[in-house]
Amino acid sequence: IDVLILGMGDDGHTASLFPNSPNLSEALDLQGERRCLPMLAPSVPHQRLTLTRRLLASARSPILSVSGQAKLDTLRTALAGDDLAEMPVRAFLNPSLEIYWCP
Questions:
Q1: What pLDDT was estimated at residue 20?
Q2: Pick the CATH number of 3-102 from 3.40.50.1360, 3.40.50.720, 3.30.390.50, 2.60.40.10
């Protein structure tokens, strides 16, 4: 992946990696062999597919785009903690990530 542009939900999800959802630990495993997994969103009755952290983390230029005060507050909360299951976006908060915020 050359460029990866992630968004973030108010609950700290990103790339259909939802907090405490089934398959989340497997999807976030950097040693996992799968590249894609089904995930359940809490607000819809059907599954989504997501790329795994191992594949997403291989991006040469990772970017997080967030907008609005609520998501800025969510980002601050994510930056202050380390529980990936609680806020999966934390898996991507590292020095190589460029973060863009728009009010």
A1: 85
A2: 3.40.50.1360
